[in-house]
Design brief:
Aminopeptidase, seven-stranded mixed sheet, 17 strands, alpha+beta, 11 helices, 40% helix, 2 domains, 25% strand, ten-stranded mixed sheet
C-alpha cells in the first residue's frame, strides 16, 4: 500500500479502470467530506508494477482523540484475486492498528447476490460470498452502522429505449407516457438559482416523508464539485414552468446514480417523477453510461422496511436487484469501540440538555 501523489484527474482515471468503481471513491467525494471534518487519504496497491487496487480512505478524529477510518464504497479492486484482496485487507487492518482507530469501515460495491433473496431466480455471486467468509475469518464484523444502502436496483442502459420500456411494468410505462401527454417537461439544472430551488424542494420532501437532511451548503458543495468536474447533472421536472420534481445524478465509470431525489405535492396526478426518471435514463445513455443505479431498495423485502414505499415506485422499472456485501468493521481496540458505543450517545444527550439549559 502506498499513498497516491498525483493529480485528481489521474486518481479518478485509476479508480475508473478498476472493477466495482464508484463515485464515492472519487477525488471529488474526498473534497466534499474534507469540508466536514474528514481527511481524505487516497492510497493504491500495485501488482507486477501496475496499480491493481485503490481506496479513498476518509479519516476523522473524534472526541477523546479517537480516530475512525472509512472507505465509502471501497476498496476498489478485482475481488476475485485472492492474494490481492488478502493484502488489501491486511494493510487496512495494520493502518487501523497504527492509527489506534476505533474502527476501520469498508463497504465495497461488491455483490453477494442478485434478485430477491427468496426468489427462485435469485443468483449468488461466488466472489462476494467468498469475500464475506474471508472478512469473518479475519475478524471483521458486519457493521451496526450501514452508511450506504446495501441493496439497490440497476438498469441495463445497453438496451435501447424500446427494450427498456418493454421491460418495465405496464403501469410504469403508462405513467411515463401520461406525463408526456400532461405536459411535464424535464430540463437540466443550471446555476445557483436552480441549486437553491432543488434544496428547497429537498427540504420539503424531507419534512413530508420524515427523514433528516444536512444543511444547504453540504448539498451545494456536492452538486457544484461534481458538475464542475463533468461528473454530475441536476434534472428539474416542470409543469407549466412550475418545478414539481428534481434529482441530482452523479455519473462515473459509465454508471449513473439516482443520488438525491425530491418533489412537491403539486401536479402529482401528472406523474412528474416518471417523466423525471425517463429523462435521466435517456440522458445517461447519451453520455455513454451503461448502468443506472437507482440508489437503494429495501434491506429486508417486507412492509416494515423504511424503503418499502420507495420500492413500490422503483420496482416498476424492473432493473436487476443487486445485494451487496454491506459495511464491515475491523476493530483494532474492541473494548474501546464497545465502550464508545455505550457512552457516546449518553454524552451527546447530556451535552444537548446542557446547551438547552444555557440558552
Amino acid at each position: 500500500m502506498e499513498p497516491f501523489r498525483q493529480n485528481p484527474r489521474a486518481w479518478n482515471a485509476l479508480v475508473a479502470r478498476l472493477p466495482h468503481a464508484h463515485f464515492l471513491q472519487t477525488w471529488q467525494w474526498g473534497q466534499v467530506k474534507a469540508a466536514y471534518g474528514w481527511q481524505p487519504h487516497p492510497v493504491l496497491w500495485k501488482a507486477r508494477g501496475e496499480p491493481a487496487a485503490a481506496a479513498l480512505v476518509l479519516r476523522r478524529r473524534g472526541p477523546w482523540g479517537l480516530t475512525a477510518l472509512y472507505a465509502p464504497r471501497g476498496p476498489v479492486l478485482p475481488w476475485s484475486w485472492p492474494a490481492l484482496r488478502g493484502q488489501v485487507l491486511a494493510d487496512l487492518e495494520a493502518w487501523g492498528r497504527r492509527a489506534g482507530a476505533l474502527f476501520v469501515k469498508i463497504d465495497p460495491d461488491l455483490p453477494v447476490g442478485y434478485g430477491l433473496p427468496d426468489d427462485e431466480d435469485a443468483q449468488p455471486n461466488p466472489t462476494g460470498i467468498a469475500v464475506q467468509g474471508l472478512l469473518q475469518q479475519r475478524g471483521w464484523q458486519p457493521s451496526e452502522q450501514q452508511v450506504q444502502f446495501p441493496n439497490t436496483m440497476v438498469l441495463d442502459l445497453t438496451l435501447d429505449e424500446d427494450q427498456l420500456l418493454a421491460r418495465m411494468k405496464q403501469k410504469t410505462r403508462y405513467n411515463i407516457r401520461l406525463a408526456a401527454r400532461k405536459g411535464v417537461r424535464v430540463r437540466l439544472a443550471q446555476g445557483d438559482a436552480d441549486w437553491d430551488l432543488m434544496y428547497r424542494m429537498y427540504a420539503q420532501t424531507a419534512a413530508r416523508d420524515g427523514f433528516v437532511i444536512r444543511p444547504r451548503d453540504y448539498y451545494l458543495r456536492i452538486w457544484h464539485l461534481f458538475t464542475q468536474a463533468n461528473m454530475g447533472q441536476g434534472f428539474i421536472a416542470e409543469v407549466e414552468g412550475e418545478a414539481v420534481a428534481a434529482a441530482f445524478v452523479p455519473h462515473f465509470a459509465k454508471t449513473g446514480w439516482f443520488f438525491h431525489g425530491m418533489s412537491t405535492r403539486a401536479h402529482r396526478e401528472k406523474m412528474p417523477n416518471y417523466a423525471l426518471q425517463w429523462a435521466i435514463i435517456r440522458w445517461l445513455k447519451a453520455q455513454g453510461c451503461t448502468r443506472y443505479d437507482l440508489w437503494g431498495v429495501p434491506t429486508q423485502f417486507h412492509e416494515a422496511d423504511p424503503l418499502w414505499g420507495v420500492w413500490g415506485f422503483k420496482r416498476g422499472f424492473r432493473g436487476q436487484i443487486v445485494r451487496t456485501l454491506g459495511a464491515w468493521d475491523y476493530l483494532p481496540r474492541p473494548w474501546a469501540y464497545h465502550l464508545f458505543q455505550r457512552v457516546w450517545p449518553r454524552a451527546l444527550a447530556w451535552m444537548r440538555r446542557r446547551a438547552q439549559r444555557s440558552r
